[in-house]
Amino acid sequence: MNDQTDAELLRDYVEHHREQAFADLVHRHLDLVHSAAVRMVCDSHLANDVTQGVFVALAKSAPQLTSRPVLSGWLHRTAQNIAAQTVRTDTRRRAREQEAVAMNKLHAAESESPWQTIAPHLDAALGELNDVDRDALLLRYFERKTAPEMAGILGISHEAAQKRVTRALDRLRDLFTKRGVTVGAGGLGVVLTAHAVQAAPAGLGATVSSTALAAKAAATSTVITTTKLVAMTTLQKTLATAVVIALTGAGFYEARHAAQLRAQNQSLLQKQSPLLGQLSDLQRERDNASNQLSALLAEGAALKARSNEAEIVKLRGQLAQFREAKTAKIAPDDSREELMRSWLQREDQLKAAIKQNPDKTIPELSLLSEEDFLNAAMDAKFDTDKGLRQTLANLRRRAENIFASIAADAVTKYMKDHDSRFPTYLSDLLPYFKTPLSSDILDRWQILPQSALPNQSMGGDWVITEKSPVDATLDNRWAIGPGSYGNSTYQSPEVSDAVGAIKPAMQAYAADHNGQQPTDPSQILPYVTTPEEQAAFQKLMEKFPTNPVTGKAW
Fold it and tell me: What confidence category does residue 396 fall into, taking pLDDT thresholds of 50, 70 and 90?
């Protein structure tokens, strides 16, 4: 396997015209691009065309990409653009093929998995992420890089790389939720690792390489030919003109023939419109069945702690071996063994901290999986009281998020069965919880009017929220309403008024940034225009001079 980075291979191809360097790039990223193309166009033949188009574009744009550290992000974005153009030119045919696939999936529902639920939405959701988040997910789950490998590529620490992946995964899960797709807590990364990149058809790599290089050579040849044409004699120019006219005539013939074929195709589509209506009905039935199956699979995955996923089985097997060998001597050159041992030690340290701080724990921690504890241990800070408080707050937030997801799903089902009425008591939801919840968990929550949480609108008159925080400084207040849930920091009346005053500025920022909320106060400063908004903004900066999550200055 070639150990050169993407940037080094690109420079080798651009500066030394080494076609093998380009072929190595194609071999390295072919599966990623082809898998994305299949999801985007839902047709293997069109996916092959899209894949070829991406690498043709790479060959032509190579000089501009030699300084780019993460090439996969550019390849994915280019695949999106080419796939969109391909789909626009053949929308009706693609629709028929998608409906046919949908019917096949309906008949084979028993073998479906959460992957079939998220796959149709994956690439659109990736496209909505910013470059930093998208690159992190592509490196981790599509190129299957480890945290140390990502750190080397991005020029950051491996802990920062792991945090970047975790944040990007949460944002991707939020985008799925907005599309009505429920992904089991902690399972999205496992599903992406197992299914996001599939092997491309045999022989496609060689075809793509040759096609891309030929297209590049043709473009270069056109420039050289144009230069030579300037120096032609009159006779040569006359002959060249005749050749151009002949080729143009052939082009007109091909265009006319293509127009006739399109007319015939349109006629066939009109005859098939009744069938398309029937296919649309079948698709709706398929979607209903798929949603029900997705919920059942998510429930089964939660109860079995995702033991059916190959990566988790492998990870747990390795962790079990390392637990038995904690006292064994570590080989100095075995960095993976040392990392795993350190990871397990941090997990033990985290669980010990939970036992030593019972006043900072909540019963919802029982909903966390082994994977959740391992991920939390990776980012945990034990060296200071402040770091430990933040670590336990992060763990509580993760557990409360799982509860909120379960409760929101139960509220939706309850309201569907009770003429859209919100439950009066939390015990009304017991038959609707997909995961059994203890009374200790339910005792921490209450039902309040929406007016009690003016800054957390959930789209209804009532919400489910916690009775009180464990740590008001670091904890978030959750609100669960009809079909949605969210959280925000606990606020005093003074802070709530200030947040309400700058809400128009935040909405204006979101409108200019595709619905994304600001992550730094400086981002909304240009939108704070009225004296009232400016005073409220200043009050918030005095109240929160540092980021309450990281503890660092804004």
Answer: very high
